Amino acid sequence: MSDLRELYQEVIMDHNRSPRNYGSLEDANRTAEGFNPLCGDQLQVYLYVNNDAIIEEVRFEGKGCAISTASASIMTETLRGRSAEDAERYFQAFCALATGDGETFDQNLDLGKLEVLNGVREYPARVKCATLAWHTLRAALRGDKTPVKTE
Ligand code: ZN
To answer: Which end of the chain has fewer CB within 10 Å, C or N?
Structure first.
C-alpha cells in the first residue's frame, strides 16, 4: 500500500511540475473561472466543444497548490475527446472518489489516473483543491458566467 501511495505521489508531483494542456485556448467556445479561497487556488478552464457535444479541446491555466494543478492537468487528459455527458459522469465519479463517498458513482467508469488523487479524502481541506478544476469545468459546460467558488 505504501508503494502505491508513493507512486500516486509521484504522479501528482509530475503533473504539478509539468502540467498537461496548460495555457489558454484561442478558439475556446466555453470558459469558466474557479477560485478556492481556502488555499488560494485559482484557475481558468477553456473548452472547445463541437456540434456533437464532444470536448475536442480542453486546457487550463492559473496558479495553485500541487493538488489543484495536478488535478486540473489529469482532468484535461481524461476528458479530451469525450462527450459533455461523459464529463458529467466523470465529475460525479471524481467528487465521490475525492470525498470517499464511493458508492454513489458508476463503478464501470474507468477512472484511470484520477485514482491517484484518492488520498485527498483524508484531508478535508485538500478535497476542495482537488475538485476545483472539476467544478470549474462543469460551470464552463453549463455556460455559467459566475466564477466558481468552493466556499
Ligand atoms: Zn490548494
So the answer is: N
Rounded CA separation 150/129 (Å): 9
44: how many CB neighbours lie within 10 A of its CB? 19
The CATH class given to the 2-143 domain equals: alpha beta
Residue 90 Cα to ligand 1 middle (Å)? 21
Do residues 72 and 133 touch, judged by C-beta distance below 8 A?
yes
What confidence tens digit (pLDDT) does each residue in 60-114 have? 999 999 999 999 999 999 999 999 999 999 999 999 999 887 666 666 788 888 9
Ligand 1 centroid–CA 66 distance in Å is 7
pLDDT tens per residue across span 117-134: 988 988 888 999 999 999
How far does residue 51's CA lie from ligand 1's centre (Å)? 34
Q: How far is the CA of 64 from the centre of ligand 1 (A)?
A: 6
